[in-house]
Amino acid sequence: GPIAFVDSVDSPVLDDDDRHHFQRVLRVREGSPMVVCDGAGSWRRATFGESISVVGDVEVIDPPTPTITVAFALVKGDRPEFVVQKLTELGVDTIVPMTTEHCVVRWDERKAHRQRERFARISREAAMQ
């Protein structure tokens, strides 16, 4: 069944946007099977309805080992965002933007900090999809 990301797999609650998506877009009916997960490796089977009813036990998937870290040289425009998105889709754990000797793009410390925060957010969002 469809998967919903929730804050807690012990007492799952769908927000209004997710509920609308399930009912109107996916056309999930009351009593239909679904899966709820927290995006951190825990998930369980459930049934869709006015309130989500949990069916099975909580399953936990351990993160893969070894962890993978990729550093990439800064590029112009929106391309760093694209690089982060694709690396996240591939399952990279840590992404490190770096400045190299022949790199055209130069960030001051303030912009570098802001971009690191942005990359972390993009990485989390991509991992949730």
Key words describing this protein structure:
single chain; 129 residues; alpha/beta; five-stranded mixed beta sheet; two-stranded parallel ribbon; 3 helices; 7 strands; 33% helix
Task: Give an account of the 3D structure.
The protein has helices at 16-25, 79-90, 109-128; strands spanning 3-5, 33-37, 42-47, 53-54, 59-60, 69-73, 94-98. Helix 1 links the parallel strand 1 (3-5) and strand 2. The chain is built from 3 helices and 7 strands, in the order E-H-E-E-E-E-E-H-E-H. Strands 1, 2, 3, 4 and 5 form a 5-stranded mixed β-sheet that branches. It is of the alpha/beta class. The mean pLDDT is 83.
Largest sheet: 5 strands, mixed
- H/E order of the elements? EHEEEEEHEH
Number of strands: 7
* Class of secondary structure makeup: alpha/beta
Share of residues in helices: 25-40%
Mean pLDDT figure: 83
Put simply, the count of helices is: 3
Indicate the proportion of strand residues. 15-25%
Radius of gyration: 19 Å
Distance between the termini: 15 Å
Low-confidence regions: none
| Global outline | elongated
Task: Briefly characterize the structure.
With 129 residues, the chain is α/β, with parallel strands linked by helices.
